[in-house]
Amino acid sequence: MIKQGNVMFHIVLNANENYIKYAAVLMTSIIQKTDLNKSMSEFCNFDTDEGYVFHILSDHISESMKVRISNLEKQLNDIYPCKIVLHILNDDEFKGMLKWRGNYLAYYRIKMASVLPQNLKICLYLDCDMLCFGDLRELLSVDINNYQAAVCLDGNNHKKNKKVFFSLKGREKYKFSNIEKYFNSGFILVNLDRWRRDNIENKSIDFLKKFKTLYPDQDALNFALNDTLLLPNRWNFSLGYFVAFLKNSQEILFLNQTKYPHLNYTKTEFENEVKNIKIAHFILDPFKPWDAFQYSIVNDDLQLIEYPFYKHYWSVAKNTPEFYLDFLVQKESINEHKAENLINELGKAVVKEMRRYTSRASYRRLRKSIIFLYIINVILIIYVVLNH
Fold it and tell me: Per the UniProt record, which residue ranges are transmembrane (predicted)?
């Protein structure tokens, strides 16, 4: 591990004003999962102060929101020592680049080594659409002294997945030569000394100015970071793969099943990761927990499946200091659309069944499926009405 002196564990988040409440849920889950019976020194072999420093990189935070963030900090600090530090960044350096969901916020992680105190040796970057299920201080025992960062694979890390980027000007193109190590940028345990020394920030920005990208910051960081340590995916568990697995266990191809697996581990290893998730990442699926009704999945056996970790997320959200009332209002709005969401999902299932059974021999099964879905639909509508 990296010796960094008497400082706390620094965690970096990107969030605009609208996303602060989701960052608050993540911070709350981190505090909740910190084992208060253990000290920071039990996870590392160097002297360090107890607690977290959460750095929020943003484009603008109003004065009223700053007050709320301060209140959040005070209440979380009553549970476990922590600080929340705001950093307002300028977009000018990214002007002309491709925006991600309407803004440049995703790029801010590229600049974290410049923004954070220069005496810091290590930090952890996390996306806000995450939920913590383990004690993050375990990461302090990971030795990244000889690496630029520790990361988790993104998925589809095989040679058939050819990532080629074409120049914004001219005919030049760039192809990743080591797709097997392409990582998801939602989790990065950073060796800040190497990040600065290897000029990762400028290399990433130069790449973005030069090439068309699909996932701008992620593609740029994969270009710039060429000496990374791979961690088990339990530290950045993409729930989209789990959703696909729940819908149809045959839909996800694992290592040893094909030359081109979706995930670089076996089915048994995947199931073990599910049981030992440290950080759940709500990506690779259309629904965030704050957008969806909890029974949003209909599997291939026409069973309603609870959205993974939906209840866990809302349990934390409803207990997030300063922002819990926001989430109660938001949850009520979601509840108003329960029936509509369920009908949409069941309708998709009917269409899927119709595509599967097109011959006369399978007509009876199709008819039974439609009748089954209709009955379930009626039952669910009655349930929603009675529980509204």
Answer: 369-386
Q: DSSP character for 50?
A: S
Cα(160)–Cα(362) distance, integer angstroms? 36
Helix axes 20-32, 310-317, angle to 10 degrees: 100
Length of the chain: 388
Condensed to tens digits (0 to 9), the pLDDT of residues 268-300 reads: 998 999 999 999 999 987 678 888 766 667 777
Q: How far apart are CA 65 and CA 217, in angstroms?
A: 27
- Bin 358: left if φ > 0, else alpha if -120 < ψ < 50, else beta: alpha
pLDDT band at 61 (very low <50, low <70, confident <90, very high): very high
Query: What does the pLDDT read at residue 383?
Result: 61
CA angle 56, 18, 152 (to 5 degrees): 50
Residue 97 and residue 343 in contact, taking contact as beta carbons nearer than 8 Å = no
Mean pLDDT of the chain: 86
CA pair distance 263, 313, nearest whole angstrom: 25
**Amino acid type, 159:** K
| Cα 180 to Cα 162: distance, rounded to the nearest angstrom | 11
Domains of the chain and any CATH numbers: 9-235 (3.90.550.10), 291-388 (no CATH)
Residue 313 is encoded by which pair of tokens?
């997320």
pLDDT, position 351 = 60
This model's pTM is above 0.90: no
The encoded tokens of residue 211 equal 């090439």
Which residues does residue 281 pair with via DSSP β-bridges, in sequence order?
130, 238
Please tell me which residue, 124 or 178, carries the higher pLDDT value.
124
